[in-house]
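LOG
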Amino acid sequence: MDTPKIKINGKIIQPAPPKMKVWREFLAFFDKDKGKMTVEEFLSAHVALIVLAFNQPEVTTESVEENMEIADVVPLARQLFEWLQAQTFAKLVNLPNGETETGK
């Protein structure tokens, strides 16, 4: 999967390597019932996830709100979540499965 990107003040920025905090925040949000959230709360939560995932000084709430079109906020947050999952599971595939070299 391609690494998500954001353009802030003409500069293309990629997210920092993900940390557990980012994974937990995304999981909590996407597992949460969002039916009672207002549109403002919903969009603000997505902007906060974007800022958290990029973890770059140029990517702040203000810079995201000023540089992104509103229709791109939710798709970028979802793309970031898919990217986080891909990053996590790509490394899990390489973990030993508990079998010895002789297959016992």
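LOG (cont.) second protein
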Amino acid sequence: MSRRALGAVSTDRGMVSLGGARRFAERAFGEVLGMIERHRQRRSLAALDDHLLRDVGLSRADARRETDKAFWQG
């Protein structure tokens, strides 16, 4: 069986695995989904009042520190 039949593409620099490209795309997509989820959770955290923040063991300063982070920061 040829390498092309096994899922490889010929380029001017040799054979490139399509499996590697797929893994990269899946990982990148997962990262984007994680960023969206962090952004959503931080917006929700910012909307909590002081009473609810105390219920989950956070101060307003803790919540502010978390919500001030950019969406790409873990």
